[in-house]
């Protein structure tokens, strides 16, 4: 084998040995796609992303507390989006009955992409099921391993930058630390102990991860669970169907699972309508039945991510509304004037869908815009001529559930590298990256410095769907220029 083949085989085996894999069956797995070498970013720019992510965490927490704003923001899409209709109904019931008791634990990933002309722009908020932090850390560790074990190959494909003081002298890249597993686990463990101590319970705090049945992205989740085990936290995995049959109420609004108290609930499901469907329950009522679990959770004394309010606050609809507000208007959500002006430039151009914005779309060119609905995960964006096709299928009543976002045009890497997928390497000469910054807030208070690691997903510039799990992207890491 040549040097590339040796490095690919070695790195794939490293990925399997360190759980950087997707589950295929109970007896098999497939490694997560990854880049051979990391992306580079200017230190000041990365620090700016971290600062912005922390402020967005504060902003989204404040919005989640503003019942009137959420109801006014989401009501226009409730008639045509069944998931948001159900969530808004539960939100209104919780607001009217003043029955919320859960402590909001906002584990959020804020995704950015760097536009060639406009600089870093917000792609989206992920306030529910904000995953892949552990895989982001593993990608950083894998790149450090490749740099040490296959130094010559790494140096061939990593982006080099030259010293300003000594022209022609290459500067060795400096890896950016990524401790997402530890930081996310710290925030969850802190909230778990807070609830446990409040009730003077004996034994280990208990953490419940709500998951989809037959989850194939299980190892990313397991890495977080194992870190919690190391901190003395008991972990359980449950679907909404299982919770429906096993939850009850204890003394002092304690939430019981099979008659044992639980302290934290973390949703890795619940962001799509099918998560609330179960054919074993009468079909006419199954979604309503499983949706009621969300309300029951919030009516008990637990720490919870994501609350219904957090999910609505981090929606594309709210993002679109915020993007059209002046910086001063963001101060109503508790930001200082300086903080508001700091994050305002990160909002990209987003337009509500109506006759005037469609006319603007046609005038400025289809290739300059992306049509988005309210869905989370891959497959919810429409590009190019497909936008016209999609618009023809929509009734005007459905327009409120969609928005137009100015397409971000990032600058590709200056140096080609490889993506390793299915055990094989493909050379990519125009790699672009999306950077997600994790933050953790417990009832509005950020843990540590608010930043809890990062996730980089890279893809060829001509690929539209860049998700690692559902598109053509690959996990990546960062070095300073």
UniProtKB/TrEMBL annotation:
<keyword id="KW-0547">Nucleotide-binding</keyword>
<feature type="domain" description="Glutathione synthase substrate-binding">
    <location>
        <begin position="206"/>
        <end position="313"/>
    </location>
</feature>
<dbReference type="GO" id="GO:0043295">
    <property type="term" value="F:glutathione binding"/>
</dbReference>
<dbReference type="InterPro" id="IPR014042">
    <property type="entry name" value="Glutathione_synthase_a-hlx"/>
</dbReference>
<dbReference type="InterPro" id="IPR016185">
    <property type="entry name" value="PreATP-grasp_dom_sf"/>
</dbReference>
<protein>
    <recommendedName>
        <fullName>glutathione synthase</fullName>
        <ecNumber>6.3.2.3</ecNumber>
    </recommendedName>
</protein>
<dbReference type="GO" id="GO:0046872">
    <property type="term" value="F:metal ion binding"/>
</dbReference>
<dbReference type="InterPro" id="IPR014049">
    <property type="entry name" value="Glutathione_synthase_N_euk"/>
</dbReference>
<keyword id="KW-0317">Glutathione biosynthesis</keyword>
<keyword id="KW-0479">Metal-binding</keyword>
<dbReference type="InterPro" id="IPR014709">
    <property type="entry name" value="Glutathione_synthase_C_euk"/>
</dbReference>
<dbReference type="InterPro" id="IPR005615">
    <property type="entry name" value="Glutathione_synthase"/>
</dbReference>
<keyword id="KW-0067">ATP-binding</keyword>
<keyword id="KW-0460">Magnesium</keyword>
<dbReference type="Pfam" id="PF03917">
    <property type="entry name" value="GSH_synth_ATP"/>
</dbReference>
<comment type="similarity">
    <text>Belongs to the eukaryotic GSH synthase family.</text>
</comment>
<keyword id="KW-0436">Ligase</keyword>
<dbReference type="GO" id="GO:0005524">
    <property type="term" value="F:ATP binding"/>
</dbReference>
<dbReference type="GO" id="GO:0005829">
    <property type="term" value="C:cytosol"/>
</dbReference>
<comment type="pathway">
    <text>Sulfur metabolism; glutathione biosynthesis; glutathione from L-cysteine and L-glutamate: step 2/2.</text>
</comment>
<dbReference type="InterPro" id="IPR037013">
    <property type="entry name" value="GSH-S_sub-bd_sf"/>
</dbReference>
<dbReference type="Pfam" id="PF03199">
    <property type="entry name" value="GSH_synthase"/>
</dbReference>
<dbReference type="InterPro" id="IPR004887">
    <property type="entry name" value="GSH_synth_subst-bd"/>
</dbReference>
<dbReference type="GO" id="GO:0004363">
    <property type="term" value="F:glutathione synthase activity"/>
</dbReference>
